[in-house]
Amino acid sequence: MWLEDHMITPIQRIPRYILLLSDLMKHTHETHPDHQLLAQCVVSMKAIARHINESKKRSEEVRCPACACIVAVARHSLR
Questions:
Q1: What are phi and psi of 28, to 5 degrees?
Q2: At what angle are helices 3-26 and 33-63 packed, to 10 degrees?
Q3: What is the DSSP letter of 32?
Q4: What is the pLDDT tens value at each position of the chain, 79 positions in all?
Q5: What DSSP state is assigned to residue 64?
Q6: Which is deepest, 1, 21, 67, 79, by most CB within 10 Å?
Q7: Which of 53, 44, 74, 56 is nearest to 36 (CA)?
Q8: Does the model's pTM come out above 0.70?
Q9: Residue 43's Cα: distance from chain center in Å?
Q10: Under 8 Å CB-to-CB from 28, ≥6 apart: which residues?
């Protein structure tokens, strides 16, 4: 395995955690004391995933400013 393969593994875990926590919450009765905590965890993990995606997008834009410009123009024309 290459270094890049090992570096992506922790990032790939976040969506799995969201699915796992969502499934666990679905099977936990609403009156159970852990239900609210599970709901908060799902919200937090989704926020973390969003932050990672935004950071990744920004880093890609920094690596290739011309590509970022092309993507921005394409997004604007699709509106």
A1: -105, 125
A2: 150
A3: S
A4: 566 666 666 667 888 999 999 999 999 999 999 999 999 999 999 999 999 888 877 777 666 666 666 667 666 666 5
A5: -
A6: 21
A7: 44
A8: no
A9: 11
A10: 34, 35, 38
